[in-house]
C-alpha cells in the first residue's frame, strides 16, 4: 500500500509502518512523505515569514493577532498586560510586611506592620491599627501627638470626663466642673456647681445662699438690689440732712443758669451846662425765689466823657397777688463835654431745671423808640415769681408811655449771638450789635415750659420732682418780634 497524501494541518496523518521484506517502498511512499514535510514547513514558516497563518509570523511578528505571541489564556481569563518589571514587583513581597520598593501584600487579617503615607487622600479610609509618622488633613499637618489626640477618645458632649477633653453640650453646657482657679475676670457662668470659689486668690467663705441674699433682688434696709445685682436703689426718704456731711453738696453740683437785666442812661445838657441823665424801671428778677443775690456792672459808651454813674436797687410793690422778686432799678450818670450813654447791667444767677425757651424782653419809649431796659433769661419771667404767666406775662411794669417787646430764641441762636461777644454779656451784645426787626412776624412758641417747682414737695434724695409746666399765652399788650444785626 502506497503512502497517502498528507492531510496535515487539517488533521494528523495516520501512517502505517513498513515491514522489511514484506512491503515494497514505492515512489508514492516517498512523495507522500515529502508532502507531509512540505506542509509542516509551511505551517512553521520561514524566518520573518509574512504568512499570517505561519507559526513564525504568529510568534514573532508585532502585527500578529490573537492568539499570537501574547499567548492566549484559558477560556474566560484576562490577558496579562503587565511588563516584566511590573511582575517583578511581586518578587520579594512578604504578606503583612511592608517591603521597600515591592508590592504591598496584606496579611491574613488585612494587616500591615508599618506604613509611611505622605497623603491619605480618601476621607472614608478606616485604619484599624496604623503607625503614622505624619498626618495631614485637608492639606494641613496635624501637629497634635497621639497622646493629645487620645484625650478626645472617651469624651462625652455636655459631661465632664476625668482625664479627657471637655466637649460642651448643645447649649454650651457641662454637667459638673471642678475649677481650681478661674483666671478670667470676664468669665460668665450661667449655671455652675462650684465646690470652692476663689476671688483674687482669696477663698469665698460665704455660702451660695448667703451670697444670693446679699446680691440678688433683696431689700437691705435703705438699699434695694435688682435681680441682676446691676442696679442698687436708695430707698426714698432715707438720706436725711443729718446723714449729709458738711459741704457735702457743692454749689457747682447745682444746675444753675443766669438771667440778665440792663438799664440804659442817656445824659443831656442841663441849665448848668453839664450833661446829666437818669433812668428808672421796675422789673422782676430772673429766677425769682430760686435766685441768688444779683451782681452789677456799668458800661460807658466809648466816646463819652461820663464821670459818674450810680444804681439804686429797691424793692417795690406790684399789682400781682403772689410773692415775686420785683425790684426798682434807678440809675444816674453825669458827663462834662457831650451827650453820652451808659448801661448798668444786673446779673441774676438762679437754680433751674428747665431752659426750654430763651426769653428776651425790651422796654422802650413809644414815641422816641429809645430802649430803656432789656431783660433775658432761659426761663419765663413768671418762673420763681408766682408761676402764673397770665398774672406776670413779662418782667416790666410799664406806664402809658412805654411798650414791651418780646423775643424768643433757641439755644443755637443764643450761642450764635454769643460767638461775637468778645467778653461781652448777651444783653450788651444785643444792645450794641442788634436791633429790632420791625417787619418780622414770628410764630409764638406753642410748647410747655417750666414755670415753677411743686410746693410742699418732700425734698429728699430718691424722690422724683416733676416741675410745673404750662403753655405761655401770647400777651395782647406785648409786641412779638425778631432781632436782626445792625
State the total count of DSSP E strands: 22
How many structural domains does the protein architecture include? 3
Main β-sheet, in a few words? 7 strands, mixed
Query: Cα-atom Rg, whole angstroms?
Result: 60 Å
Specify the overall morphology.
elongated
Which structural class best describes the helix and strand composition?
Answer: alpha+beta
Spans with pLDDT under 50 lasting ≥5 residues? 302-309
Mean pLDDT across the residues is 78
* Measured distance between first and last alpha carbons: 162 Å
Describe this structure in words.
This protein is α+β, with helices and mostly antiparallel strands and 486 residues long. The chain has 3 domains: 1-73, no CATH class; 176-182 and 191-235, no CATH class; 256-485, no CATH class. It contains 7 helices and 22 strands. It has helices at 27-44, 55-60, 84-88, 146-149, 208-215, 411-419, 426-433, and strands at residues 135-137, 140-142, 198-199, 202-203, 219-220, 223-225, 232-234, 256-266, 268-269, 275-284, 295-300, 306-315, 326-335, 341-351, 358-365, 371-377, 402-409, 434-437, 448-452, 468-471, 478-480, 482-485. The strands form 7 sheets. The protein has a 7-stranded mixed β-sheet. Strands 9-10-13-12 form a 4-stranded antiparallel β-sheet, with no helix packed on it. The protein has a 3-stranded antiparallel β-sheet with strand order 5-6-7, with no helix packed on it. The longest helix has 18 residues, at 27-44. It is elongated and about 200 Å long. Mean pLDDT is 78; it is low at 302-309.
Amino acid at each position: 500500500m502506497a503512502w497517502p497524501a498528507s492531510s496535515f494541518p487539517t488533521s494528523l496523518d495516520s501512517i502505517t509502518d513498513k515491514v522489511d521484506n514484506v512491503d515494497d517502498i514505492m515512489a508514492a511512499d516517498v512523495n507522500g512523505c515529502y508532502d507531509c514535510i512540505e506542509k509542516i514547513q509551511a505551517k512553521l514558516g520561514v524566518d520573518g515569514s509574512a504568512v499570517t497563518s505561519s507559526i513564525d509570523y504568529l510568534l514573532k511578528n508585532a502585527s500578529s493577532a490573537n492568539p499570537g505571541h501574547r499567548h492566549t489564556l484559558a477560556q474566560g481569563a484576562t490577558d496579562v498586560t503587565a511588563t516584566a518589571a511590573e511582575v517583578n514587583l511581586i518578587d520579594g513581597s512578604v504578606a503583612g510586611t511592608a517591603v521597600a520598593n515591592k508590592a504591598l501584600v496584606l496579611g491574613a487579617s488585612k494587616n500591615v506592620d508599618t506604613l509611611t503615607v505622605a497623603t491619605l487622600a480618601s476621607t472614608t479610609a478606616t485604619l484599624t491599627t496604623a503607625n503614622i509618622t505624619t498626618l495631614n488633613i485637608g492639606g494641613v499637618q496635624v501637629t497634635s501627638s497621639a497622646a493629645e489626640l487620645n484625650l478626645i477618645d472617651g469624651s462625652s458632649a455636655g459631661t465632664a470626663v476625668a482625664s479627657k477633653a471637655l466637649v460642651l453640650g448643645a447649649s454650651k453646657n457641662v454637667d459638673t466642673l471642678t475649677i481650681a482657679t478661674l483666671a478670667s475676670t470676664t468669665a460668665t457662668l450661667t449655671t455652675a456647681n462650684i465646690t470652692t470659689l476663689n476671688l483674687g486668690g482669696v477663698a469665698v467663705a460665704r455660702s451660695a445662699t448667703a451670697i444670693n441674699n446679699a446680691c440678688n433682688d433683696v431689700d437691705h434696709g435703705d438699699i434695694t438690689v435688682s435681680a441682676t445685682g446691676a442696679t442698687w436703689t436708695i430707698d426714698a426718704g432715707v438720706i436725711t440732712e443729718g446723714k449729709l456731711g458738711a459741704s457735702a453738696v457743692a454749689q457747682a453740683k447745682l444746675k444753675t443758669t443766669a438771667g440778665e437785666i440792663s438799664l440804659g442812661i442817656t445824659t443831656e445838657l442841663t441849665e448848668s451846662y453839664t450833661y446829666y441823665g437818669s433812668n428808672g424801671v421796675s422789673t422782676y428778677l430772673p429766677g425769682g425765689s430760686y435766685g441768688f443775690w444779683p451782681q452789677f456792672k456799668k458800661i460807658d459808651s466809648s466816646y463819652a466823657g461820663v464821670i459818674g454813674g450810680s444804681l439804686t436797687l429797691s424793692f417795690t410793690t406790684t399789682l400781682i397777688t403772689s410773692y415775686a422778686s420785683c425790684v426798682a432799678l434807678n440809675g444816674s450818670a453825669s458827663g462834662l463835654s457831650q451827650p453820652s450813654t451808659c448801661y448798668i447791667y444786673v446779673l441774676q444767677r438762679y437754680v433751674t431745671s428747665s431752659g426750654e425757651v430763651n426769653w428776651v424782653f425790651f422796654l422802650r419809649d413809644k414815641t422816641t423808640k429809645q430802649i430803656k431796659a432789656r431783660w433775658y433769661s432761659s426761663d419765663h419771667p413768671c418762673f420763681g415769681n408766682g408761676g402764673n404767666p397770665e398774672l406776670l406775662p413779662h418782667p416790666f411794669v410799664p406806664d402809658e408811655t412805654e411798650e414791651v417787646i418780646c423775643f424768643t430764641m433757641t439755644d443755637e441762636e443764643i450761642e450764635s449771638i454769643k460767638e461775637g461777644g468778645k467778653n461781652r454779656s448777651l444783653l450788651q451784645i444785643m444792645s450794641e450789635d442788634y436791633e429790632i426787626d420791625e417787619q418780622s412776624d414770628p410764630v409764638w412758641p406753642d410748647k410747655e415750659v417750666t414755670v415753677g417747682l411743686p410746693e410742699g414737695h418732700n425734698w429728699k434724695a430718691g424722690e422724683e420732682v416733676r416741675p410745673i409746666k404750662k403753655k405761655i399765652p401770647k400777651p395782647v399788650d406785648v409786641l412779638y418780634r425778631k432781632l436782626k444785626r445792625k
